[in-house]
Amino acid sequence: MPASVPKRHPPRSTHDEFDGPHQFLPSGRMSVSKENDLPRVQAHLLIQEQDTILGKVNDRLSQCAFDFVAKYQFPIPLEQDKRPVQCPSDREWNEWVFLLKRLATKRRIPARVIYSGQIKQLVTILENSLEMRHAAKHQSRPLKDDRNVLQLISAGLQVAKLLKDAACMQYMDTLYLETERLIQSRKASPARLNPTISGR
To answer: Does pTM surpass 0.85?
Structure first.
């Protein structure tokens, strides 16, 4: 019986698909506005209030991730430049996100421990929550509009739901309602500070 000849895989092409056959859409249907011409959206929360709210979301999500990893005894790789994890604050939220994503993509997390077995959805929701960590940690960021702040709290709620953390879900829901009430009270008091911003 002749020896089998290993199949040769063609080398990966470095060809850019955009250099091949392509098309352009008809132009002229969309007018490009200058930033100053964009509709203005309201931000009724002071920058310090936004920092406090997003910091609470960041810290509570870190606690949620810590509890989840501890409950199911998932391994945390040891790193020379980092101390072993003893409490939630030993890792930034983006580091918890990276750990959970790696556990999910390496199939270390069984589907049964995630809400409705939505492992792929977990990775997406975790990536969406990274903006919240950036907003909470970078003090030089621009002021966010009201809807964006509420969306970031909602993203935290979705993380807690997928990890099936009822206490964290309740915390996020309460924070969302309190923030929404604060925004509504500012809207009802035109004499109060009522900044407006463009975009997010």
So the answer is: no
